[in-house]
Amino acid sequence: MIGLSTVADVRAAEDVLLARTPEGALMQRAATGLATVCLRLLGRAHGTRVTALVGGGNNGGDALFAGAHLAARGARVTAVLLDPGRAHPAGLAALRRAGGRVTGPGDPDGLDRADLVLDGIAGIGGRGGLRPEAARLAERAATGPGIPVAVDVPSGVDADTGAVEGTAFPAVHTVTFGAVKPGLVVGEGRGYAGTVHLVDIGLGPHLARPRAYQLTDDDVAAHLEPPGDGDDKYSRGVVGIVAGSATYPGAAVLCTGAALRTRAGLVRYAGTAADGVRASWPEAIVTDARPGDAGRVQAWVVGPGTGTDDDARSVLAEVLATDLPVVVDADALTMAAREPDLVRRRSAPTVLTPHDREFARFGAEVGADRIGSARRLAADLGAVVLLKGNATVVADPDGTAFVNATGTTDLATAGTGDVLSGILGALLATGTPPAETAAAAAHLHGRAGQAAGESGPLIAGDLVRRLSPTVGRVRGLGLRDSGA
Ligand SMILES: NC(=O)C1=CN([C@@H]2O[C@H](COP(=O)(O)OP(=O)(O)OC[C@H]3O[C@@H](n4cnc5c(N)ncnc54)[C@H](O)[C@@H]3O)[C@@H](O)[C@H]2O)[C@@H](O)CC1
Ligand SMILES: [K+]
């Protein structure tokens, strides 16, 4: 797992470390790491042009020292000082010694010819939307030819939330120090940070335990263990699915298929789309009776395409009255938002999977702080909230959060949510902790989306078809993608 550390946690760890290291040592570590990444991106230093945008804080200091490293290797470095009176004095001296040029914000011509632009305007000390002069430079850098590299955090991005007010520096790479900050991987910030490179400056042992994480393929592989010798089809957890309707069986077919393809244990389907599901998935055990008559299951998925009429409401209430884990999706979210006590009174795990509009039905818009909003709803309902988005956020009622790293914009198409709830139900039926399990489902869903998107625009059925090879790949078994 990759821990995501808040600004307060980074500052606290820095304070401890600063007291134990010679003055300037941390900034040197940061600047050396930054220059190393820049060299890798440029391929060579000699003869290249680098423009550093330099604010009046330590973030600007990092950019100046890194510029000095690059200048010492033969790069032509220009520092554009936004606040000449406050630029980091030692950094400025180092850059000048190494032969770098220094100008003010009125003379940013270097931006139009740079091979690489360093954004050292503001880091974790940045507050609010970029001021006009900084915004102008960030916009100019965006249209210029140089590779845009953010120092620690793209200026204008809130490091804790990813919120952007107005303009931010549109980095293609962000070189961040000590720990990945949440704002680099979630919300709008994710789009401004590009590829994140973490430079170790020794903060690790002093950092508080993070409250937010990203899962890796290895973490997710633990949720996808193949059956052991002693397993049979029941011992690995059976998932029950209530989805679709006689007129619209599509959601039921996608959800059931996704569950089957995620874990080829047992999948039961109960609902009015029974004929459609039977025709598509002879492997599922299908009934058009109520969930209570479907046979034993270890987890339920309820809601995709069920509608919100009285019958649908009574089926939802029946499922939520069980003491089993339940995934509440789509139409079931609309109904749960009307009667949140159906969720609150449960003691077994519930996972809600809203997109932004569904989230708002529970009483508050998502807003710019996606992790904070998901945490608030999770705590209010005592349920895990999986808030869908470009970077899906999962929040546990205890405040632990996960941010998904594998999402692609290709997934923004009809039916992909039905696939996610099928994956999630299948994984939840094994009895693993619900928040991490939900994060694992989002990760796998994203990986399947990446695979399906390689050959052009994807439709939800492509995700289902790609799931088995994707599970194989994430498990690291090296199963060959069948290309189906
Ligand atoms: N504390 C330390 O020992 C270390 C700090 N490091 C660097 O220091 C940074 C934090 O430094 P600071 O606390 O000095 O703060 P920053 O340099 O991140 O931010 C303060 C500067 O940003 C400007 N600024 C703030 N909001 C702005 C806005 N909306 N528009 C335009 N300009 C704005 C301020 O005028 C000031 O010049 C980290 O992000 C990291 O880059 C690293 O060198 C590692 C070691
Ligand atoms: K920056």
TrEMBL record:
Domain YjeF C-terminal: 216-474
Segments crossing the lipid bilayer: none
GO molecular function annotations of the record: ADP-dependent NAD(P)H-hydrate dehydratase activity; ATP binding; kinase activity; metal ion binding; NAD(P)HX epimerase activity
EC number: 4.2.1.136, 5.1.99.6
Cofactor(s) in the UniProt record: K(+); Mg(2+)
Ligand binding (K(+)): N59, D119, S155
Keywords: ATP-binding, Isomerase, Kinase, Lyase, Metal-binding, Multifunctional enzyme, NAD, NADP, Nucleotide-binding, Potassium, Transferase
Catalysed reactions listed for this entry: (6R)-NADPHX = (6S)-NADPHX; (6S)-NADPHX + ADP = AMP + phosphate + NADPH + H(+); (6R)-NADHX = (6S)-NADHX; (6S)-NADHX + ADP = AMP + phosphate + NADH + H(+)
Residue positions binding AMP: K388, G389, N390, A391, T392, G417
Matching InterPro entries: Carbohydrate_kinase_pred_CS, CARKD, Nnr, Ribokinase-like, YjeF_N_dom, YjeF_N_dom_sf
Sequence ranges assigned to domain YjeF N-terminal in this UniProt record: 5-209
Entry-linked CDD domains: YXKO-related (cd01171)
Cofactor: how bound: Binds 1 potassium ion per subunit.
Residues reported to bind (6S)-NADPHX: 58-62, 123-129, 152, 251, 305, 355, 418
Swiss-Prot/TrEMBL GO biological process terms: metabolite repair; nicotinamide nucleotide metabolic process
Biological role stated in the UniProt entry: Bifunctional enzyme that catalyzes the epimerization of the S- and R-forms of NAD(P)HX and the dehydration of the S-form of NAD(P)HX at the expense of ADP, which is converted to AMP. This allows the repair of both epimers of NAD(P)HX, a damaged form of NAD(P)H that is a result of enzymatic or heat-dependent hydration. Catalyzes the epimerization of the S- and R-forms of NAD(P)HX, a damaged form of NAD(P)H that is a result of enzymatic or heat-dependent hydration. This is a prerequisite for the S-specific NAD(P)H-hydrate dehydratase to allow the repair of both epimers of NAD(P)HX.
HAMAP family noted in UniProt: NADHX_dehydratase, NADHX_epimerase
Family membership: Belongs to the NnrD/CARKD family. In the C-terminal section; belongs to the NnrD/CARKD family.
NCBIfam families registered for this protein in UniProt: yjeF_cterm
Subunit structure: Homotetramer.
Protein name per Swiss-Prot or TrEMBL: Bifunctional NAD(P)H-hydrate repair enzyme
